[in-house]
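User: Teach me something about this protein's shape.
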Amino acid sequence: MTSLTIPDEIAASSSEAAVPHAQPFANVRRLWGALHIRRQRRALLLLDDRMLRDVGLSRADVEREVTRALFDLPSDLRSR
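Assistant: First, the predicted structure itself:
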């Protein structure tokens, strides 16, 4: 029986790239995460100024956050 070796380029690739059907699921997870962040951003609109001060935000911070694009995610969530 002969032994097979895996070229370094293939071995170093991500598991999602190695499995063609995994990429659509990664996109679904990314969309789900983006929608979750959007709900959190919109929930900030429901807080009054006192509550915003309690968490260290101003009304201008909230307006800026709410107007961000759907996939403009915090850097720690981009790779998920």
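Now, about its shape. The first helix runs from residue 8 to 12. The radius of gyration is 20 Å. If you'd like, I can walk through any region in more detail.
User: That's plenty for now, thanks!
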